[in-house]
Each structure stands twice: as C-alpha cells, then as structure tokens.
Amino acid sequence: YWVTQVHAQYVLNVDHALKKYGVDNSRRRILLALKSKPHASVSDLSEMVVSKMSTTTKIVYRLKDEGLVDTYSCEDDARITRVVLTEKGNLMTQKINDLTNIVLEQSFEGLTPLQIEKTMESLRHIFKNLSR
Known about the structure:
Blueprint: H1 2-18, H2 25-36, E1 40-41, H3 42-48, H4 53-65, E2 69-73, E3 81-85, H5 87-107, H6 113-130
Antiparallel strand pairs: 1-3, 2-3
Helix pairs in contact: 1-5, 2-5, 3-4
C-alpha cells in the first residue's frame, strides 16, 4: 500500500514541477533512460522504464515530434530502432534533473543518511523480488 502511495505522490509532485516545461512523467522517464544509455533501442528503453513496447514507441515518437530525440535504424539490424537525445533533449534532461532533485530532497526531509540508505536497499531488494 505505502509503496504505491509514495510512488503516486512522487509522480504527482514531479508532474507538477515539470508542467512548465511541457514534460510529463512518461516523457521524463524515457529522456532520463536515454541519458543513462545513449543510443538505446526502443526495446531497451521499454525494459528500462518498465513499460509496454507499444507505449514506449508512442512516447519516443512524441519526443521526436517535440525535437527532444532522434531515431535511426541500427546498422547491424534494420529492424531495431535506436534513439538518441538531441541537443534540446540534453538540455531538457538537465532541467528535469534540477527539478526532480528538489522533489527528491523534499521526499527524504527529516530522514538520516542511514535511514535513506536502508530504505533504498529495501526498495532495491523488493524490486529484484518482483522482477523474477
């Protein structure tokens, strides 16, 4: 119960903070995944953001229409579409990180570094259990 409540409130707060840039949580997740794995395939992105392939594809093409990403066919296998951040996309990821860091700091306000570390450790473990 609390995991879903915290997640929903976090997404709501992040969406509110990013609204002025025209970015929602779905776009944010794809952009940040691309920042961590440049030239990822749509399939890679789908796995990274834990989303259906069709949903990820729609978001990628919306981001492309907005000038935040470009796509190209993989040289080794033309069936694979790779995605890369544009300069505008890179700038947006910096803005996203700046705003989400503020939300994240608010999230952990009043907790000690050890409590934060233990919470993260527990969440990683829960995620691993659910990913089996």
